[in-house]
Amino acid sequence: MTELEQKQQLVELAKSFYQRGYSVGGAGNLSVRLDDNRILVTPTGSSLGRLDADRLSVLDMQGNVLSGDKPSKEYVFHLALYQQNPKCNAIVHLHSTYLTALSCLDDLDQDNAIKAFTPYYVMRVGKLQVIPYYRPGSPEIARELSERALTGKAFLLANHGIVVTGSDLLDAADNADELEETAKLQFILQGQKIRYLTDDEVKDLENRGK
Ligand SMILES: [Zn+2]
């Protein structure tokens, strides 16, 4: 894929998130690793529904802007994940309704906020670790994520939203979709007796994915 195609794909996927109500106003940001030393990030204050491929921010791994507009202030944690995990090539950060609602609940299991009840969640994401609350854009979020960068694909930022990684942008976007749907199902099922997948059933899915 050429750099222009990567920019166009980011604009298209961001618009899809916006149109489906996964992002409102200027919330949320997406990024892609372009090569060993550059990433593409959505600009600060931009709406995911109205991005311009020519104005997307291109940064080096030190956070210097090489071209485009000023990046989202949350670019710091995107960089931290790319620096720590060479297999992470794209990141989707959303304040989507059901995942954000989940992030506001007290007493979440910090190691896995959604216990598996569908195979699709296990195959795409596996588990959802919780990052404690910090002010949006603060360096602590980047530090917490870089410490966990190699331990999972998705992270729930307490009282904030979701950070989902992928092998490419399409993979990260599909992971985010699956996760939002799983959170929605969990709320629909609230108060009912869920048949969770057993440990053996989860292991069987994990082994097939390898
Ligand atoms: Zn955010």
From TrEMBL:
CC cofactor: Zn(2+)
A biological process from GO: pentose catabolic process
Keywords noted in UniProt: Carbohydrate metabolism, Lyase, Metal-binding, Zinc
GO CC annotation, single: cytosol
Domain Class II aldolase/adducin N-terminal: 8-187
Reaction catalyzed: 3-dehydro-4-O-phospho-D-erythronate + H(+) = dihydroxyacetone phosphate + CO2; 3-dehydro-4-O-phospho-L-erythronate + H(+) = dihydroxyacetone phosphate + CO2
Name of the protein: 3-oxo-tetronate 4-phosphate decarboxylase
SMART domains: Aldolase_II
An annotated Gene Ontology molecular function: aldehyde-lyase activity
EC number: 4.1.1.104
Role according to the record: Catalyzes the decarboxylation of 3-oxo-tetronate 4-phosphate to dihydroxyacetone phosphate (DHAP) and CO(2).
Enzyme class: lyase
Keyword Metal-binding set for record: yes
Organism: Lonepinella koalarum
Signal peptide: none
Highest taxon in the source lineage: Bacteria
Family from the record: Belongs to the aldolase class II family. AraD/FucA subfamily.
PANTHER family for this protein: 3-OXO-TETRONATE 4-PHOSPHATE DECARBOXYLASE-RELATED, FUCULOSE PHOSPHATE ALDOLASE
